[in-house]
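Please, is this right?
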Amino acid sequence: MSVYSRLTESWVQPDKVALSFGIDVRYGELRFRIAEREAQLAARGVAPGHVVAIQLPRSLELLETFLAVLKMGAVALPMNTAYTASETRFIIRDSGAVLHLCDGASQPLPTPKTLPSDVAVLCYTSGTTGRPKGAMLTHDNLAACIGGLHQAWQWSPQDVLVHALPLYHVHGLFVAQLGALWAGATTYLMRRFDAASTLRAMVDRRATIFMGVPTFYRRFLKLPESAVDLDLSAMRLFTSGSAPLPAEVHQAFRDRFGHRILERYGMTEVGIVLSNPVNGERRPGAVGFPLPGVLARVVDAETDDVLPPDGIGEIQIGGPSVFAGYLGLPDKTDQALTTDRWMRTGDLGLVDDDGYFHVVGRAKDLVISGGLNIYPREIETVLLQHPAVDEAAVVGIADPDWGEIVVALLVGDATQADALQSWTRQRLAGYKCPKQIRWAEALPRNAMAKVQKNRIREQW
C-alpha cells in the first residue's frame, strides 16, 4: 500500500475541513484537487518512478502537488525556495528530476500500482560537510515513521494542528502535515511564523497540536503578558525538534503557559524515531524512548558494541523507517549503514538508567582538547542558564598546543562578558570553559533554524 492510499483511509468525512489557508478545503474537495494536479503532471509526461522537483512557496498548491506525486507513484523532491540558482541546479541535475515545478495543471488518471518498497520521496540533506546527498525514502519508510508517530502521539480525527513549519522539510511536511492527514485531522496553515499571531491562531482555532523548533518557543516566551489572550485549554500537545531544546526553555514555557513541551529526535534518513511520552514524564534534556517499530541503541562507534547505561557513544537506529540509501552514492550509503542496516546517525548520546535517550552532540562537533573529550552541548547548557545569554553555540577550533580549544559564539548582552567567565568557571571544569567568547547579533542558521557550526568554525 502506498503512503497516499494509507492517508486517504482516514478521509471518511468529506465535509470536514482538511486544510485551511485563506480558504477552507474539505476532505472531499481535497481528493478532487489532488486528482486535478495528478492530471496536470501526467500531461507534462510524469510517470511512475519519475522525480518531480517541487520548489513552491508555502501554499495549498504545494501540498496538493506533493500528494498528487505520491498518488501517481512518482518521486517527490521538496526543495527550499531560498536555494540559490547554483544550489537548485545541482539538486535538479543530481536527482535526475524530469520536472521542476513552479505551478501545476488538468484530468484525473487511474492510480498506478505502487510497491511499498518503491521510492516515494527524495530529501536532500543539508550538506554541511560537502555536497548535499539525496536520501531515498520509500513508501514503507514514510508509513513506518508516520504510523509510529500516530500511535505514540495519539493522533485522532478530532485533532486540530496549527502549522507554522516549512513545507519542504521532513519536520513540517511529513511529521506535521502528513501526520494530520493520516489521522483525518484539520490543519490551519500559517503564512509564516509570528509568535503573537501563531498563539492567537491556537486560541481562535481551539488547536490541539503545535509543532515547533526551539526558536519558536523562545519567541513565545519573549512576548509580553498582554500580547495574546491565552486560553490554551484545548491544546494537548506541544512538540519541539530539529535542534536541542534547552531545559530552561522547557521549564519557563511550562511555568508561563501551563504545558509541557514534548521533545523528540529524528533525522532525514530515518524520520522521527525517539520521543518523550505523551502520558508520562517528559524529561527535560531527554528525547525519550523508541517509537513503535523502532530499534535504537548507543554503541562504541568503532566496534558497534552496545554500551551500558550512561555510556556515551553513537546513536544507531534500526527498523522499517531506515532509508533506502543515497541516490547514486553507494559508497556513502555503505558508510551510513552497518552491515545489518542500522543507521549510523553521527549523533553522540547515552541511555540513562530509566531508559530515556539523551543526545549530547554531534560526533563531528566533539572537541578533543589536551586528549580530553568535551561535549559542546554541556557547555551551551551552562551558558544559556546565564541571564545575559539568549543563544549560544560552542565549537572547537584548531590549536597547536592543545589540538583544539573551546570557543563560544553568543547572542545577548555583551556587557556581561566578565561575569559570564566567572559563571562558567564556577560550573564547569577548567578545561571545558571557553577560551574565547565572541558576541553576534544572531547565530548562523539554516532554513530549519539549525545552527550551522561549520560556518562558525570557518569564520573564527
In short: The domain at 3-160+176-190+276-359 is CATH 3.40.50.12780 (Rossmann fold). The chain has 13 helices and 24 strands.
